[in-house]
Design brief:
The protein is mostly helical. It contains six helices and no strands. It is elongated and about 60 Å long. The termini are far apart.
């Protein structure tokens, strides 16, 4: 096992991720490296972007698969390597085409009732 792989695994475990999530995230980073035939710590932001686009447009992976890949890669670059790349700022929900707005879930009447019930703290 490479020191880099061990480092991401330890970072995930320290943050309480499940064994299956650790495996999935490590696999996502390994597949990124295999795609570019290079160590993931040597890849550019553009190369990561190309891989994520490849997953969506060429491989046509399911939303869940894409989300796992994005989250694993995002964790690796932001937490393990401390690289805040803008290409990784895409919300997994947005990347999967899921709205992040609750506007249509809670009606104005429901909001008012919550404010009344909680003493205006909602």
């Amino acid at each position: 096992m490479t020191p880099l792989r061990q480092r991401i695994m330890h970072n995930l475990q320290l943050r309480g991720y499940s064994d299956r999530t650790v495996e999935a995230y490590v696999r996502a980073v390994a597949q990124l490296a295999q795609f570019h035939h290079a160590s993931p710590d040597q890849l550019s932001e553009e190369q990561v972007r190309q891989y994520l686009l490849h997953l969506s447009t060429v491989q046509k992976v399911a939303r869940g698969t894409h989300t796992i890949a994005l989250c694993g890669i995002k964790f690796f670059y932001k937490e393990t390597l401390a690289r805040p790349w803008s290409v990784l700022d895409v919300s997994p929900l947005r990347a999967a085409g899921i709205s992040t707005s609750l506007g249509s879930v809670i009606s104005p009447a429901d909001k008012e009732e919550m404010r009344t019930t909680t003493g205006g703290r909602a």
